[in-house]
Design a protein that fits this description.
Number of helices: 8
Radius of gyration: 18 Å
Number of strands: 12
Shape: globular
Structural class: alpha+beta
CATH architecture of the largest domain: 2-Layer Sandwich
CATH class of the largest domain: Alpha Beta
Strand content: 25-35%
Helix content: 25-40%
Amino acid sequence: MLVFPNAKINLGLHIINKREDGFHNLETCFLPIQWQDMLEIAENNVDTFSTSGIEIKGDSKDNLCLKALQLLRNDFKIPTISIHLHKSIPMGAGLGGGSSDAAFLLQLLNNKFSLKITNSDLINYAKKLGSDCAFFIQNKPIFATEKGDIFSDINLQLSGYQVFVAYSDIHVSTAEAYSFVKPRKENSNLKLDLLKPIKSWKNTIFNDFELSVFTKHPILADLKQKMYDNGAIYASMSGSGSAIYGIFDTNKDAYFLNNLNYNVTIIS
């Protein structure tokens, strides 16, 4: 069985405060985009895990896909399988590729082996793997609070807009980004601001990670400005970085993104 885990971008990301458990309370809006990996499983006489595409560094045992498999095996009898992951979504880009892979694997195992896990239970399993994994079970525009895993619906009016997402080979680890970010001092209502016309977002909706990440990687600030210079209505860094996206209201040539990895998504 074959699936195509997709990426996400964050529309605004506010760091509210640090929690007693070491995580941070935040508020953000997740928006799925069609930058995709490829994930395939098949029954096999032994468990195997292989990858292609973008190199995945580190110990493969730490991959979220394998953790997702083990998580379900704790509660269900799942035969030995081969897993192949073709990686296209950049890592350290704030696009949630690893979280998406894990969430899609949970669903893939559920469907292939008829585990009959409900959607709400899949969300609970996904929460155990990472703060944004659960989003990819629903995989629709959603407003998230607390660790990014408490969801409420949001009625975004973005139909017909075009989203350009650019990645410049700068890897920003989540731990690095959080180590420098400072919780915001002023009160805000991100959900209310997101319901206002998109043309107002430039002055009201911010990603709190940008201040520290842009200081260390000024090329990302330049890329964000380039989005605006080429007609973006709104531009921002996604998640904890380093992908930069721009939202455009017309068909746009991507010539200004030459020499970058990028994806274009039409929001329907």
